[in-house]
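=== RUN LOG ===
request id: a7f3
mode: sequence -> structure
chains: 1
length: 89
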Amino acid sequence: MSSDADIAAPWYVYLLECRDGSLYTGITTDVARRYAQHLAGKGARYTRSRPPVRLLGQFPHPDRASASRAEHAIKQLRPEQKRALCAGA
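=== RESULT ===
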Protein backbone atom coordinates (compact mmCIF):
# COMPACT_ATOMS: atom_id res chain seq x y z
CA MET A 1 0.00 0.00 0.00
CA SER A 2 1.35 3.45 -0.92
CA SER A 3 1.68 6.25 1.58
CA ASP A 4 0.54 9.80 0.85
CA ALA A 5 4.18 10.78 0.31
CA ASP A 6 4.54 8.13 -2.40
CA ILE A 7 1.49 9.53 -4.20
CA ALA A 8 2.10 13.25 -3.68
CA ALA A 9 5.73 13.62 -4.71
CA PRO A 10 7.44 12.32 -7.83
CA TRP A 11 10.42 10.04 -7.28
CA TYR A 12 13.75 10.51 -9.02
CA VAL A 13 16.54 8.19 -10.04
CA TYR A 14 19.79 10.14 -9.86
CA LEU A 15 23.39 9.43 -10.80
CA LEU A 16 26.45 10.91 -9.12
CA GLU A 17 30.05 10.94 -10.27
CA CYS A 18 32.36 10.21 -7.35
CA ARG A 19 35.86 11.50 -6.66
CA ASP A 20 37.45 8.23 -7.82
CA GLY A 21 35.56 8.38 -11.15
CA SER A 22 32.99 5.75 -10.16
CA LEU A 23 29.26 6.33 -10.51
CA TYR A 24 26.59 6.04 -7.82
CA THR A 25 22.90 5.51 -8.61
CA GLY A 26 20.10 6.12 -6.11
CA ILE A 27 16.46 7.17 -5.72
CA THR A 28 14.83 9.98 -3.75
CA THR A 29 11.93 12.42 -3.74
CA ASP A 30 14.28 15.41 -3.30
CA VAL A 31 17.50 15.28 -5.31
CA ALA A 32 18.98 18.49 -3.90
CA ARG A 33 18.46 17.35 -0.29
CA ARG A 34 19.85 13.89 -0.98
CA TYR A 35 22.89 15.28 -2.82
CA ALA A 36 23.59 17.57 0.16
CA GLN A 37 23.41 14.52 2.43
CA HIS A 38 25.93 12.69 0.26
CA LEU A 39 28.26 15.72 0.33
CA ALA A 40 27.97 15.93 4.13
CA GLY A 41 28.91 12.27 4.52
CA LYS A 42 25.40 11.39 5.71
CA GLY A 43 24.31 9.60 2.54
CA ALA A 44 24.97 6.06 1.44
CA ARG A 45 27.96 4.15 2.75
CA TYR A 46 29.34 4.06 -0.81
CA THR A 47 29.52 7.86 -1.05
CA ARG A 48 31.01 8.23 2.41
CA SER A 49 34.19 6.58 1.16
CA ARG A 50 33.89 7.99 -2.38
CA PRO A 51 32.57 11.55 -2.06
CA PRO A 52 30.51 12.80 -5.01
CA VAL A 53 31.93 15.56 -7.19
CA ARG A 54 28.87 16.22 -9.35
CA LEU A 55 25.33 15.24 -10.16
CA LEU A 56 25.34 13.59 -13.60
CA GLY A 57 21.60 13.28 -14.12
CA GLN A 58 18.17 12.85 -12.63
CA PHE A 59 15.12 11.13 -14.08
CA PRO A 60 11.57 11.60 -12.71
CA HIS A 61 9.21 8.69 -12.06
CA PRO A 62 5.59 8.77 -10.89
CA ASP A 63 6.11 6.48 -7.90
CA ARG A 64 8.70 4.68 -5.81
CA ALA A 65 8.11 1.32 -7.48
CA SER A 66 8.90 2.60 -10.97
CA ALA A 67 11.90 4.55 -9.66
CA SER A 68 13.22 1.40 -7.97
CA ARG A 69 12.80 -0.62 -11.18
CA ALA A 70 14.61 2.06 -13.16
CA GLU A 71 17.38 2.25 -10.55
CA HIS A 72 17.90 -1.51 -10.80
CA ALA A 73 18.00 -1.37 -14.62
CA ILE A 74 20.50 1.51 -14.58
CA LYS A 75 22.72 -0.31 -12.09
CA GLN A 76 23.02 -3.16 -14.62
CA LEU A 77 24.54 -0.81 -17.23
CA ARG A 78 28.25 -0.35 -17.83
CA PRO A 79 29.66 3.02 -16.70
CA GLU A 80 29.95 4.34 -20.26
CA GLN A 81 26.28 3.45 -20.84
CA LYS A 82 25.30 5.31 -17.67
CA ARG A 83 27.23 8.37 -18.83
CA ALA A 84 25.57 8.20 -22.26
CA LEU A 85 22.15 7.97 -20.59
CA CYS A 86 22.88 11.10 -18.57
CA ALA A 87 24.19 12.89 -21.64
CA GLY A 88 20.92 12.15 -23.42
CA ALA A 89 22.44 9.83 -26.02
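=== NOTES ===
The two ends are 36 Å apart (CA to CA).
The CA atoms of residues 22 and 79 lie 8 Å apart.
=== END ===
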